[in-house]
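Annex B, item 7. Sequence and structure tokens for protein A, then protein B.
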Amino acid sequence: MIAVTGITGKIGSQLARTLLAEHKPVRAVVRDIRKGRPWELQGCEVAQADINDSAALAAAFQGAEAIFILVPPNFDPLPGFPEAHATAAALKSALTASHPGKVVYLSTIGTQAAQSNLLTSHTIIEKALGQLPVPITFLRPAWFMENAAWDVASARGSGIIPSFLQPLDKRVPMVATVDIAQVAAELLQEEWVGHRVVELEGPTRVTPNQIAATFSDLLGHAVTIEAVPRDTWQSLFESQGMKNPTPRIRMLDGFNEGWIEFEGGETGSRKGKETLQAVLKTLTGQR
């Protein structure tokens, strides 16, 4: 039995469908039991647990041969990342109690960075889980290509999309969620000892300029990209309702300045197959 958290999201659902297609037994771990019903109809067991409820998680993980852990994103954490510390403690307790055969934790590129930033939440959780005597793979994917979904409306309308990734000709490690799900499915069925890190990006790195050019090709009209001035980020994010934008700003700085990178660099990362063209084609409804 493979227990899958985050099954109602894009990566978790793609992972579960992949496993089911390979006739693997899947247990859907959901916070809202009503959202587990569609998965039950597809043949999954269903268990209810919140990611911060250690007792419920332990029960949901009990008897699992493998567990996929996906922590819901928090784009506006409180100072000191108390939410991540709480999640780390709950997961550590649940895994200690349930004794799974192996775990794949969906982390992120740059978890090893010393500078505090939005991705530090995963650093905290990785550190806690790294204390467990359980085979764990920390799957660290690059920037999601699907983040470009936020740009589709602007690309269609004004033809101008903003970019926080700068400079516009800088190559950024990106990956499609379908590749993350596929690799996670493969890792969950492997055998290994101890803890390991798998870093994942797409077939080639992508510049913001390439994103604009690809939108242009797909939409049939000129699409340009403009860098959002760094000195406007704080006020802009606050105007959007963020209370603590510093971690997000520092994450963007990390990508732009190059200190958010894979430990093994570009040559050491595993490469997915899905291209930017394919992802943007889907996002623009051109299947």
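Protein B:
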Amino acid sequence: MSLLLILMMLAAEAAPAAPAGSIDATLRGTTQPLEVQLLLRDAADNWKTVAQKSLPAETRRVRFDGLEAGVYQILVRGPGATEHLATKIAVGRTDARHTTITIQPFVLAGRVTLGGTELGAGGLLLKHREFHSRSPILLGPDGTFRVPFWQRGTFSYNVRGPALPTDYSQMTELEGSSPGPLHIDIPDGRISGILRDAKSSQPVGGATVALQTNIDDREEHVRLTTGPEGRFDFVGIKHGRHIVRIYPAQHLEPEPVSFELTDAAPLRELDLSLDPGRSVPIVVIDKEFDPIAHAKVFVVADSKLRARVTTDEDGRADVPLPDGEPATLFVVAEEGPFAMMRVPRNEERGADDKRRLQVFVPSAASSLLIRAQTTDGKTMRPFSLLMRYNGELMPTAVAEELTEVQGLQLATGPDSEAHLRNIPSGSYEFWPYRTEAEAESIVAAGSTFLAPIQVNVRTGENKIAVKFASRRGGR
């Protein structure tokens, strides 16, 4: 055997086999010409088109070969914009899959109204929750629609029209042999406004406006971002109690605005002035003096969260601080413990107020296990922990960010234990609470009352046992 032949055989053995999966699909339920699209779900759960074929009316079978292993979506499209049906199928590297796709057309009819009255002409866009499926529907002058439809399942929908400055979005279910009718009545509540700089009166764009709606015992949340003109506009808002919170990029956060929308007063206009404070440049770095990109920086003054920013690729940010007040910076990054830095009032910093501050994220991590029990040795109902670190109270919003980014749980579990991992060493104080009202009262009291849990955390593992007086019903 020649050397060349041996090398060719070895190369053939080393080379991975080409994907050999296949899908053979039979289509039933329609005699229309069809477009069949094959999509593959990637690691990010997005659907990517890998093949597409056109079928004439007399052909009801389609085959795809040379497929790699994965989860595929077969999307069958008819001539109409709302005539399409998707289904999933898993394929192994060498699987030969056979499937039958039955199309069961139905007529989707309905009407869109605004506060019980005609919305007028506009558009309705239905998007399937899982599949790569979008169905645009034109509304008649009276807001009605009637279209052929193939897909069933859970959909999100967006309504647009001249009477709506922004799209109205909700979810709906289309199930059964003949789903519908789909009647959408958009609430007539509306909350709009403009954000301005308190000093220059210029509009503030790029700010996040969060709306919380309280109805009965539940909350609904929606967010918008102001444009260059500083405006925001919430439409289709239900009547009830509302709270508007502003999260600007370069201004201090104002106090939340609370009000109520009623049948007699369904509209609310807000003209809000934002305090720019004083801008202090910072850079967040690790022990090697390397910048930490995309770190969250929270500004706390008088135990209240006043601003939040995110560092850029170079670990830099311009942080708004309250003018004439000292402040504390809490920094949360994806890796490493949280960091804290005190910043004196501007008159104390003097000429250094424009010098870029270096905020170090410590590298040595510690952990703290808090074991709570009643004085009679029983476990306690789970509670949350309000934390003060090195004399500075950490607002609940910062603690929530730590939970989201690093998984740090400032709360006990069913075993009455709270295990705080990846925290810096230092002096810690904790107050247990179970409701937001309790947390607010602790913050309002400041340092009037000593914390029931106090511990000096050193590098490495730390443990502490805390006993609470027994109360009727358990604490």
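Comment on protein B: Helices lie at 3-14, 346-349, 396-406, 436-445.
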